[in-house]
Amino acid sequence: MLDFGWPELLIILVITIFVVGPEDIPKVMVGIGRIFRRFQYIKFALSKQFEDIMHEADLDDIRKSVNFEDKDLNTEDFNEAEADEEYLAEILQSEELKEGGDDDKSTS
């Protein structure tokens, strides 16, 4: 998307110093910071409103059906490491059963 390297940033910095002036750079930086902070707040407010609408419409069930961590599990009690260990144990057990079945067929 925007691929800026150090040379490009240095050129932008030099041009900014000439155009804005060294005395006004802190004021400009504060203004840019405020703009970004407002955008972040707008993003937060929109996502919060969307979550409120979801709760009001009782669409939590739909969200849980889409989110695999919420399926039949309480997210507070969900431990991903334990779930991975159980999954791997099941895979190993099924592979051992397959290998055990193959050995019986080959010796017959």
Brief account:
This protein is mostly helical.
Task: Compile the SSE list and pairings.
Layout (H helix, E strand, L loop, with lengths): L5 H15 L4 H32 L3 H7 L13 H28 L1
Structure description:
By secondary structure, the protein is an all-alpha fold. The chain has 2 domains: 51 residues; 31 residues. Helix content is 76%, strand content 0%. The protein is built from 4 helices and no strands. The longest helix is centred in the middle third of the chain and has 32 residues. The model has no long low-confidence stretch (mean pLDDT 79).
Shape: elongated
Which structural class do you get from the secondary structure elements?
mainly alpha
Radius of gyration: 28 Å
Q: What's the number of extended β-strand segments?
A: 0
What low-confidence regions span 5 or more consecutive residues with pLDDT below 50? none
| Overall pLDDT score | 79
Our count of domains comes out at 2
| Helix content class | over 70%
The major β-sheet equals: none
- End-to-end CA span: 63 Å
Along the chain, the helix and strand elements come as: HHHH
Features:
mainly alpha; 76% helix; 108 residues; 4 helices
